[in-house]
Amino acid sequence: MKILITGASGFVGQNLCKYLRSEAEEVFCLSLRNNEWENRLPDQADAIIHLAGKAHDTSNTSQSADYFKINRDLTIQLFDWFLKADVKDFFYFSSVKAVADTVEGILLEDVIACPITPYGKSKLEAEQYLLSYVLPEGKRLFIIRPCMIHGPGNKGNLNLLYQVVQKGMPWPLAAFDNQRSFLGIDNLNYLIKQMLLNKNIQPGVYNFADDNSISTKDLISLIGITLGKNARLWNIPVEFVKVAVKIGDLLPLPLNSERLKKLTESYVVSNSKVKKALGIDHLPSTVEQGLERTICSFKKNNF
Length: 303
Hints:
This protein is α/β, with parallel strands linked by helices. The chain has helices at 11-22, 64-84, 118-131, 158-166, 185-197, 216-227, 238-250, 257-264, 272-278, 287-301; strands at 2-6, 26-30, 44-50, 86-93, 106-107, 140-146, 148-150, 182-184, 204-208, 268-269.
């Protein structure tokens, strides 16, 4: 297969390109940063995987318009080309944040979308445009909503927890029993390859996540085991912590109500739809195996 990939210089793009090439697929990388990118499009390809986009800026310094220009408008331009081109499949990498900033229960694909951030809203508007079209016969559209992606070489938020354990700092929120979904890069690569091969899988929206979720305290314990260190888990009563953070809402302390929510909330994503569509029972790597590989890469590279 000849596969066109945008955003190939990013973490997911680098790994996916390497994986597909190792599987003897022909990969053509396209940068959308050059205004002349439309002149570099190939005459034909079997599939296009659109990874390029503006990631969520946790420091909140980005302009809202930048998200819509990159995540929505560039996607629309590329999709319009796809509709006329000799390409069968279009994979758009959206995000679970396009539909839900917080999750009650388990996130499924048919959830009523309610994004809060410009990042999520821009991703959703791109989704809505793509889904508004009746595709020409023989073409397929896949909207992929991954949860938090990780793997060797990607620091991300996991590195913050790694630093807590590596430096021997205590984790004072072990009494909170939350659950979070992750997506190891190996499982992401596997799912994309299987979707490319399976010509019977129906177009639509698919969540990508590992098979099981993990609590933050279990993740910290896993980091400790992988590093050969004793993770310092402090089970401070939940109600005491909630009262204490109210002081942080008034004074410039490290922990306030907003940070507490982000550190202890649950965000569980179901991958049952894509597994059912592909006829598989489980993904190649467990959540623990994927996280161990990422943690080992932190240790190796002294992140």
